[in-house]
Amino acid sequence: MNTAISVSLPGNIVYVAGYVNDVATVFQQDSYNAAIWRAIVAVAENNMYHIVLELHDSSGNVTNYDEVIEFALHEFVYDRKQADVDRVKELRNIGWQNMTDEQRAEWLGGLKGCLNTSDLKRIENNIYVIAQLLGLNLSTCKDNLPEIPNASYFTKMLENVAKIRAVGYLHKNTPVAPVQPLNTYQKVNVVERILHDVYEVYLANCNNVVYSGEIYAGENIGTI
């Protein structure tokens, strides 16, 4: 299994090659941001990538780059349905005291009909990783998720998703970024669908894959 990684370099660099986790690797300049160089590499089990590169600039000078970075991209969940929400309501009406052991395990396992802490952690991590790949300087809550997310938190998260979408790695049917309030399962699906599509098209671009569909540029905590 492969993943994309990227490094941010000075604007006068014209060729980048070296090793990623001891595997010879050539980096390519990003189509949208000339300061970003990217490559496809094998996924590291510990999500750590040791990058040792030679950087060739336009004047013929060669400098070295040696860095260890972490990239951990998780799954994208964007197939929530009304039935998932109905199941949350059903278990809530039963009540914890009356639930079977199986129902309690289901409740604690991260129901798709709820926006759980695990969902927010996954979304924030994916925002962080994709922003790094795209060379976007976004402030995320990857490592400091609020104990009780409020309206300002969700506003910032949606702004980050919109900025990622605006870069332009999109499918023809990639949805428009939602706005507050983030109060339906459909909107949460859209958030994760955008992140999925951007990463998928970005990865395909790295692999020089020609999609059969057209790729378009971007446009200007309970039951959900």
Descriptive account of the structure:
With 224 residues, the protein is α+β, with helices and mostly antiparallel strands. It has 5 helices and 8 strands; from the N terminus they run E-E-E-E-E-E-H-H-H-H-E-H-E. It has helices spanning 82-94, 101-108, 117-134, 151-166, 185-206, and strands at 2-8, 13-20, 23-29, 36-42, 48-57, 62-70, 170-171, 215-216. A hairpin with a 4-residue loop joins strand 5 and strand 6 (62-70). The relative contact order is 0.15. The model is unreliable at 209-223 (pLDDT under 50).
Task: Produce the secondary structure layout.
Elements: E1 2-8, E2 13-20, E3 23-29, E4 36-42, E5 48-57, E6 62-70, H1 82-94, H2 101-108, H3 117-134, H4 151-166, E7 170-171, H5 185-206, E8 215-216
Antiparallel strand pairs: 1-4, 2-3, 2-5, 3-4, 5-6, 7-8
Helix pairs in contact: 3-4, 3-5, 4-5
